[in-house]
Amino acid sequence: MTDAAASLDTDDPRAGRTALGHPLEELIACPSCDALYVAQMPPVGGRAVCDRCHTVLISPKRKAGMRIIALTVAVLILVVSAMFFPFLDIHRLGLGNSASILDAATAFETGPMALLGLATAAVIVVVPLVRMLLILYVLTPVVFDRPPARHARRAFRWSQELKPWSMAEIFAIGCAVALVKVADLAQIGFGPAFWMFSVLVVIVLFNDNYLCTWSVWKSLERPRE
Amino acid sequence: MVGMEVSGTSARVTAREAGLVACRACARVWPAETERCGRCGARLVSRDTASLQKVWAWWIAGLVCYIPANLYPMLVTETLVQSSSNTIVGGAVEIAHHGAYGIAAIILIASVLIPVGKFMAIAFLAISARRGSHVPPTRRQHVYEIVEFIGRWSMIDVFVVAILSALVQLSSVASITPGPAALTFALSVVFTMLSAQSFDSRLIWDRARKNRRDDTQ
Question: Where is the signal peptide (chain A) (predicted)?
C-alpha cells in the first residue's frame, strides 16, 4: 500500500488507476463523499465503514438472503391482508364507523383532493408492494444459487430508489396520532389491520438492516447463462 | 472494519481525483468518461453540477406550498354543537387550551418546527456547498443525513388527516373532512424531499478538501 500512496503524488490524473494496482471491479467509492477504497469483504456480521463520513459501505449478514426473502413474503402478506381489514373503528352516541386503508386513501374524493388520495394509496400500499416484489424477484434466484433473473440489476436499482417513497410504517404511526387527536370526540378501537401494520413497522426495520446492497450487487455480477 | 484504504488517512483519494467516476446507486467505479454504470444502469456524474440549482428549485416550490399550508384549514370538524375548521397552528393552540400541552407540543414540533428546520438545514447545506463553511464536513454530513431521514416522516400529518376523514363519518353527530391545507402540506413535504434528494453530498467534502489544500499552501 505504501507504493500506491507514493505513486499517487504524481500529477497524472490517471495515476489512481495504475497506482492502485487493482482492477476497477475491486474498488468501491463511498456514495456520500466519493472516498475511494479497495473493497474488502468484512467478516460476516462485520461492517466496512467509510472512515471519512462514516457511511456504512458493506455489511454482510449470516443467511441474509433467506431471512430477507422470509421477511419480504411476510410484509407482502401483511400489506395485502391489511388492505381489507378495518384499521380503526369509532363509536359515539350509538353510531359507529370503521375505516380500512382503502377508505383512508379514498377519503380525499373531490377535485384536486382526489390526487392526494391517489398519492396516499401509492405511498402506503402500491410502492411498498412493488418494492417487495422487486426484491423477491432479484434475491430469490441469487439465494438459490441460480443465475440472476432477467433485468435483475435494473429491478434492484429501482427497489432502492423507491425506498424513501415507501411509507407504510409512517402511516402506522399516523394511526396512533389520529387516535390521540379524536380521543375526546368519540371512542376509538384498533382493528386487526392496525396490529398487522404494527408488526410490519418492526419487520421493515429489520429487513433494511439485513440488506447489504454491495453484497447483492456483487452477486448480480454473475453473468446470465 | 474498513476495507483496505487506498492511500492512508492523510492523503485520501476520491474517485474523482483518481480519474474515475463513482456510481452513487451501487458504489462501483468506472473510468471518468463513462456515462452509465455498467452494473446497475444508473446515470453517472462525477459531480452533479446542476445539483444546487435543482435543490433550490424544489426548495422554493416547497416553501411556496408551505405558506398556504399554514394559512388554510387542515381539518374541518363538524359536531352536533359546532363546526370548526383548524389550521395547523390553530389546532395546536386549541388543544393547548384544553390543557393537553404535550399533544399540542408534538403537533407543533412535527408540523412547524421540523418543516421550518428542514428548509433552513437544506438552505444552509446548499449555501455552504458553494461558499464553504466553518462547520466541519462531518457535522454537515450529519445534518444532511438527518434531513433525509426526517423528511418522509412529515407525511404523518397528511396521513392523520386521511385517517380521520375516513373514520369520523358519523352522519350528523361528528364528521371530519380534509381542508385545502392537507394538499399543499403534502406537496410541500414531497418537494422538500426532492430538494434534499437532489443535493449531491459529495459537494460538502470537495469544498472541505479544497479549503484544506489552500490552507497548507
Answer: none
Summarize the confidence of residues A85-104 as an average pLDDT: 74
Whether residue A76 is predicted with pLDDT greater than 80 in this model: the reply is: yes
Pairing of strands B29-31, B20-22: antiparallel
Beta carbons of A101 and A124 less than 8 angstroms apart = yes
Q: Could you tell me if B158 and B111 are in contact, meaning their C-beta atoms sit under 8 angstroms apart? A: no
- Helix, strand, or coil (residue B40): coil
The whole-angstrom distance between residue B184's C-alpha and the CA centroid of its chain comes to 16
B3/A40 touch (CB, cutoff 8 Å), yes or no: yes
Tell me the CA distances in angstroms from A218 to A41, A110, A147, A213, one per residue in order. 11, 48, 12, 9
In whole angstroms, what is the distance from residue A38 CA to residue A121 CA?
43
Report the distance separating Cα A183 and Cα B140, nearest Å: 41
Are B30 and A24 inside 8 Å of each other by CB? yes
Residue A48, amino acid = A
| pLDDT at position B101 over 60 | yes
A36, A113, A165: residue with CB nearest B178: A113
CA gap A47, A112 in Å, rounded: 47
B191 close to B58: Cβ distance less than 8 angstroms: yes
In this structure, which topology does domain B50-216 adopt according to CATH? Butyryl-CoA Dehydrogenase, subunit A; domain 3 (1.20.140)
Q: Which of A8-12, A192-196, A221-225 has the lowest mean pLDDT?
A: A8-12
**Which of B26, B162, B205 is opposite residue A33, by nearest beta carbon?**
B205
What B76-81 contacts at long range (C-beta under 8 Å, 24+ apart), as own/partner pairs, is B76/B176, B76/B177, B76/B178, B76/B179, B77/A185, B77/B168, B77/B174, B77/B175, B77/B176, B78/B174, B78/B175, B78/B176, B78/B177, B79/A185, B79/B173, B79/B174, B80/B172, B80/B173, B80/B174
Amino acid at B30: W
Q: Is A186 on the interface with B (CB under 8 A)?
A: yes
User: Alpha-carbon distance A168 to B193, whole Å?
Assistant: 17
Would you call A16 and B42 a contact, using CB atoms and an 8 Å cutoff? Answer: no
| Per-residue DSSP letter, A203 | H
Match 473510468 to its residue by C-alpha cell.
B31
What is the complex's ipTM, to 2 decimals? 0.79
